[in-house]
Write a structure and sequence with these properties.
68% helix; mainly alpha
Length: 233
């Protein structure tokens, strides 16, 4: 299905700007204009590690056995299950988006481990080649890692930003850049609609977030990470 009319009627989005269309209104518009087989991908992109089916998987004996073989917290393992679902989607855009975010977050986590001498086995999630390299050698110079992940240098640079709110903004900028590059030569396709939704979501998350709120949120996240991982001294 082509989305010429829908995409042509949407406003242009700019990172750092604000959308004139309320986020809830955008969701309503997309649901009205998209056939159910396409809308389900928007619904999946909204999914979290706390989704009912993810929680149900944690009660499956085979999944629990996999969990016990890792050094991950339950929270991180549920994140891994969500990534696995995304990377096995029938939609190419969804697969690529979840793998990009898996790699992005794993490199950021590995950089923290390398800086503070933590065990990457306790924070790296997933089973792709990038995850295997990061578990083995971290973010040290690795030719294979650089080939697999062209954004590696930019991600490492972001990981070194000390201001937590500024770092998160740069992380979203990397996501925004990936979305623009992935859809650069795809016009009026489902990929463009899904990318537009994700860009709108990025803007929406920053709309009401003040610097003070942001600092509190991210310092809390960092404290929770240190508490849950139980790093060895």
């Amino acid at each position: 299905m082509g989305y010429e009319c829908l995409i042509s009627g949407l406003e242009d989005l700019r990172l750092g700007g604000q959308s004139k269309l309320p986020f809830d209104s955008l969701l309503e518009l997309l649901q009205e204009q998209m056939p159910p087989d396409d809308w389900k991908y928007v619904e999946f992109l909204r999914k979290t590690k706390d989704a009912p089916d993810i929680l149900a998987l944690m009660e499956d004996d085979a999944v629990l056995d996999r969990f016990r073989e890792t050094s991950l917290t339950e929270d991180d393992f549920r994140t891994q299950l969500l990534y696995e679902q995304g990377m096995h989607s029938r939609n190419r855009f969804v697969r690529a988006w979840y793998e990009f975010n898996l790699n992005l977050n794993n490199v950021l986590a590995a950089a923290v481990c390398q800086k503070h001498g933590y065990d990457p086995e306790k924070v790296i999630v997933g089973d792709n080649e990038v995850a295997h390299i990061l578990r083995k050698s971290g973010v040290a110079k690795n030719q294979n890692l650089a080939v697999l992940l062209p954004e590696l240098r930019d991600i490492i640079a972001v990981s070194e930003i000390s201001d937590l709110l500024d770092r998160e903004r740069h992380i979203d900028a990397l996501r925004w850049q990936w979305l623009e590059q992935y859809t650069l030569f795809r016009y009026f396709e489902l990929d463009n609609v899904l990318a537009y939704y994700l860009q709108s979501d990025i803007l929406h998350r920053w709309d009401d977030l003040t610097r003070e709120q942001g600092e509190a949120v991210f310092r809390s996240l960092l404290a929770d990470m240190k508490k849950d991982i139980h790093f060895d001294n």
